[in-house]
């Protein structure tokens, strides 16, 4: 029963192309017995699992073959056999770590994960999860035992490490605010981030840019998969409603970033206001858009502004010429939101981060010295409250 899976596992870890070790690899406590790797379509969750398996094999050369096993639930085997049955056989043969991909396609997956967790005390399970899967609310079987980690697209720092063959470290938001001039000098001694910024903003967030295929077509495929699988299938929305969701996303792409009129959007896609808000929530969780809220407000309230989730998606807009100001705001929101809470504010500022840091984002250096921290897109080196926008790409 296990041999075909073992052979597939061996082939995959020998042939997987992992251009760069992701930082998340060191943030996970691999001793936990049930680990979920969440991430949007196209950010490399499968490659991340396989990279871990290969790294583990190199680190533990005496590990017996078959102790770690990658399993994809696209395999028709699981239409007739259960996960618990498979795990029992795996443990019986000396297996220790199961890596499960596409597990949402398996019925009652959370119940069986819980059974495996309770029954096989020495077994470690790592599984990939769509970002729309609310593991700590909707899946009560595992909510108290699963450790959830988020895999994001490439940060600017990761992109620079890969493209410029350097090894740049991350910096905290406090570090950037307090020491950005010193940090910029250190980074600029190794690489000129501004020279790479345009290409990153256009195609550097998704690892697929490294593949020998048309990036725009691949990104469109990723976006459609996010709608058709992550939203429709996982959220169990009837297929006839797909066109309404696609149209909603197109309307957002025509205008974002912008202050939405939810009633108008509802009329345009011919559905209720409540349903439109649900669709917006699903698209945010599928990591296609970002919803910005005033402090103290959250979904399902109307957002104060809608952004596209990352700049690569923003450049997919064929309806209008997107401005550099729009791109700068989208980049800032995406990269800061990765580890911080970001809101709009009634104060005379664009964003408030963690309820205490007030920021502006500008395409060009203001004529007057900024009175608050300002991320500026067209500068390489900052001074005072003027901070290079690229530096916020070092938060992860």
Describe this structure in words.
- This protein is of the alpha/beta class.
- It has helices at 3-15, 24-27, 45-59, 83-92, 109-119, 156-164, 173-188, 194-203, 215-233, 242-255, 262-269, 273-285, 311-314, 324-337, and strands at residues 34-38, 68-72, 97-101, 124-129, 147-150, 289-292, 305-308, 342-343, 351-353, 357-362, 374-376, 386-388.
- The chain has 2 domains: 3-150, Rossmann fold (3-Layer(aba) Sandwich), CATH 3.40.50; 157-394, no CATH class.
- The strands form 3 sheets. It has a 5-stranded parallel sheet with strand order 2-3-4-1-5.
- Helix 1 (3-15) packs across helix 3 and helix 4 packs parallel to helix 5 (109-119).
Please summarize what this structure is.
The protein is an alpha/beta fold and 396 residues long.
Helix/strand order: HHEHEHEHEEHHHHHHHEEHHEEEEE
Number of helices: 14
Let me know the number of strands. Answer: 12
Our Rg estimate from Cα atoms comes to 22 Å
The helix-and-strand class reads alpha/beta
Largest beta-sheet details? 5 strands, parallel
